[in-house]
């Protein structure tokens, strides 16, 4: 076999966590929040079983044959996603959401930022958050 140039690949892993939240912006009146968020503005909140798919990308290591060790990715996801979010009230238990509305878009940003602090630089490619089967957010770190 002849030597080949570096092969790039994407590797994805998923986790599922359960959490509750209330869609409510401190910048809006109660009436405006109700109009904007409807039943998701319920003062008692509501819950979801979120599915998160994290994708990393990089060169396939010629020795290990991997972009990244899945055991390492699993541990990073445990620390960045499961520990802070699973079985939590996002608005009350996660300091990030004290001032940020806990929409799925913002949950994806929170996960991205948490993973960025843990993963090797430049390897994180995409965070995909399924709030329901019909509602999915993809975040790639764009500003």
Automatic annotation (TrEMBL):
Pathway linked to the protein: Cofactor biosynthesis; tetrahydrobiopterin biosynthesis; tetrahydrobiopterin from 7,8-dihydroneopterin triphosphate: step 1/3
EC number: 4.2.3.12
Superkingdom classification of source: Eukaryota
Membrane spanning residue stretches: none
Statement: the UniProt record of this protein carries the keyword Lyase: yes
Record InterPro entries: 6-PTP_synth/QueD, 6-PTP_synth/QueD_sf, PTPS_Cys_AS, PTPS_His_AS
Keywords: Lyase, Metal-binding, Tetrahydrobiopterin biosynthesis, Zinc
Molecular function in Gene Ontology: 6-pyruvoyltetrahydropterin synthase activity; metal ion binding
SUPFAM superfamilies the record matches: Tetrahydrobiopterin biosynthesis enzymes-like (SSF55620)
GO CC aspect terms: mitochondrion
Cofactors that this protein relies on: Zn(2+)
Pfam families hit by this protein: PTPS (PF01242)
GO biological process: tetrahydrobiopterin biosynthetic process
Function: Involved in the biosynthesis of tetrahydrobiopterin, an essential cofactor of aromatic amino acid hydroxylases. Catalyzes the transformation of 7,8-dihydroneopterin triphosphate into 6-pyruvoyl tetrahydropterin.
Family named by the database record: Belongs to the PTPS family.
Protein name per Swiss-Prot or TrEMBL: 6-pyruvoyl tetrahydrobiopterin synthase
Organism of provenance: Oxyruncus cristatus
Organism taxonomic ancestry: Eukaryota, Metazoa, Chordata, Craniata, Vertebrata
């Amino acid at each position: 076999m002849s030597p080949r140039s570096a092969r790039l690949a994407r590797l994805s892993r998923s986790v599922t966590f359960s959490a509750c939240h209330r869609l409510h912006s401190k910048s809006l009146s109660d009436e405006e929040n109700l109009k904007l968020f409807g039943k998701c503005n319920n003062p008692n909140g509501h819950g979801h079983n979120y599915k998160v798919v994290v994708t990393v990308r990089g060169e396939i290591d010629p020795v290990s044959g991997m972009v990244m060790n899945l055991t390492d990715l699993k541990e990073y996801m445990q620390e960045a996603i499961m520990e802070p979010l699973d079985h939590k009230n996002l608005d009350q238990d996660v300091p990030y959401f004290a001032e940020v509305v806990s929409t799925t878009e913002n949950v994806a940003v929170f996960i991205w930022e948490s993973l960025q602090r843990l993963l090797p630089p430049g390897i994180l490619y995409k965070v995909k958050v399924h709030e329901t089967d019909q509602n999915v957010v993809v975040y790639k770190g764009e500003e």
